[in-house]
């Protein structure tokens, strides 16, 4: 980008401006940042929904695991379209666990105390865990429809038929 400066500022002495420092920085490799975001989302879901027995790094193949420990400006080999069926199976089980735990948490809190989802998750207004799991399914190469069908089945099994119909 071209930075136009006024003549009065050309002779000014002092530290380098923040704009010039920002332009000197290396560009990040966006797919690598997106890969890190997926891991952070997975870790947050595990923590927030108290999922037991989940090993987050088992949801990634060897290329994906190696990419986590690289500089964000480096161009890394990320997982391609062909995935190991075992890893896909583990990912699918994880997403279904997230949906089940979210529905169970919501239903138990509403039955016990008649508390809304916003009150149960006060800092997460508007965060719909089943929708987040469906969005995460895109990144993990799992069918979104499978996650949504499981969500509907869970709603019906907990007696929330009106939500399941929607």
Automatic annotation (TrEMBL):
Residues 1-166 form the Rab3GAP regulatory subunit C-terminal domain. It comes from the Eukaryota. This is RBGPR protein. It comes from Rhagologus leucostigma.
């Amino acid at each position: 980008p071209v930075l136009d400066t006024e003549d009065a500022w050309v002779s000014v002495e002092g530290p380098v401006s923040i704009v010039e420092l920002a332009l000197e920085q290396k560009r990040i490799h966006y797919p690598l940042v997106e890969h890190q975001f997926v891991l952070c989302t997975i870790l947050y879901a595990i923590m927030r929904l108290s999922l037991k027995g989940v090993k987050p790094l088992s949801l990634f193949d060897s290329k994906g695991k190696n990419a986590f420990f690289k500089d964000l400006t480096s161009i890394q080999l990320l997982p391609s379209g062909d995935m190991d069926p075992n890893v896909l199976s583990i990912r699918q089980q994880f997403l279904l666990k997230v949906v089940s735990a979210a529905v169970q948490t919501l239903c138990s809190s509403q039955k016990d105390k008649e508390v809304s989802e916003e009150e149960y998750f006060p800092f997460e207004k508007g965060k719909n865990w089943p929708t987040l799991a469906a969005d995460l399914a895109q990144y993990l190469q799992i069918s979104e429809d499978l996650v949504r069908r499981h969500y509907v089945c869970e709603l019906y099994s907990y007696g929330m038929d009106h939500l399941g119909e929607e």
